[in-house]
Amino acid sequence: MTAARRRRRAWLPPLLVGVGLLLAWQVFVEVRHIKPYLLPAPSAIWHQIATNKGDILHAARVTGTNALVGLLAGTVAGAAGGALASRFRFIGELTTPVAVAVNAVPIIVLIPIFNNMFSTTSAIPRRLMVTIIVFFPIFMHTLRGLTEADATKEELMRSYAASEWTVLRKVRIPGALPFFFTGLKIASSLSVITAVVAEYFGGLQDGLGSHIVGAASNSAYGRAWAFVTASCLLGLVFYSLAVTGERIIVPWQHRHEGAR
Amino acid sequence: MTAEPAATPEGELPAVELLAVAKTFHAGRGGQVDALRDINLVIERGEFVSLIGPSGCGKSTLLRLIANLTDPTAGHIAVNGKSARQARLDQDYGMAFQQAGLFEWRTVAKNIELPLELRGWDRARRQARAEEMLKLVKLGDFAGHHPWELSGGMQQRVAIARALAFDPPLLLMDEPFGALDEMTREHMQAELNRICEETGSTAVFVTHSIPEAVFLSDRVVVLSARPGRIVTVVEVGLGARNDDTRESPEFFKKITEVREALRGSA
Lengths: 260, 266
Hints:
The complex is a heterodimer. Chain A is mostly helical. Chain A is 80% helix and 0% strand. Chain A has eleven helices and no strands. Chains A and B meet through helix 7 and helix 8 of A and strand 6 and helix 3 of B.
């Protein structure tokens, strides 16, 4: 009862704000007679979503698969890289500055080059791009989680004469999980953004990004916005999955926020 | 006066023996810090001894030397008649810190089972002991809870239960109640007093609270400001403690004695 009420109190205000913004948008477009190529009304976008439901779902499945494959590959690689860098200090010292530098560069500009490297009917360049983008937040957060030691727990394990391996298994890895999930939350949003944007540069014409570009160049602004909306929802789905995973696997993370 | 792990039955050796122990940080380099100098102390089995002194006097360092979490620069340390290192490897002591240091991903019972797991106890035996320990610290209903669902005082009680779980002959505590409010603190002191009486463990307890040291201890070791040296050792001898002890004239007399020793040391 109280939990339900608390949940409602958490959901209600953003929901009201969202509905309010949509209403204001609709009223603004109608009253000021805004041209659709500048900004279509929410009702027009909704209409386009309803008419193109099949296309949207198919495109979302294609882009979602690209994002997911890249996210999984990048997460596995990033976590493995972070673990290696924490275990062997020279690897960490060698790779961390590179990782930071690469992370600051707009790697996404490499997509046309990837497209040339593989055939244009291949989803590999997009998935590869997502993998690379996802790698860095996962790598950095895993490395930080594994190296940031909890002094009390480490001393306690030392007082138990525990082996390095035991300390790793019982303290370091579980202790790194909250950091890993912070990285995964960032990576989950990035994976969808990258998968959509990767389609802007040609190649297969089957995803949300290709449809946005296609509709916009045909002056079908409502339809373009319909696919934009779908991309937003896809991003939210990925993020929510990461948050749900975090809630289930590291439930203590939310309880003492601020303690860290 | 040798501390060889000789054929002498363990029971006759003191729990802790410190002989001319000194600890210097950054020895021989710039910023050299003399933390402890010429520490001589013998703690008998079953004794409760507090270490008290101005902050930075090295009382925590002294405890960590006994625990072999750091090595002395000079002198000799024996724990249960063995070297401190051997005593650590044999897990001769249980330890509690100012931070409870509970494992968030483990339930309360599983936290207490951790040292038992590392000693290779089987599951049934671990569970039985965890249950027993939770009763001892009066948290019997919280076995399945997670640490973050507990208050600070309760977490600290779990940490003490964990330290006691494998029946260590020696209990080392570094300001375990330092982060608790006064009421919880007094309650925890009474609990610890009861637990030590029930289990007969030897305890070395670091604190900066004079009443806490006096209430808990058989002897209070007063250390000077850095470099830490033993100024005096106050024999408390209050007998069995209860809440009335805190208001007894003897209690206040001992508090005054410790306070004056501390003042003289500063």
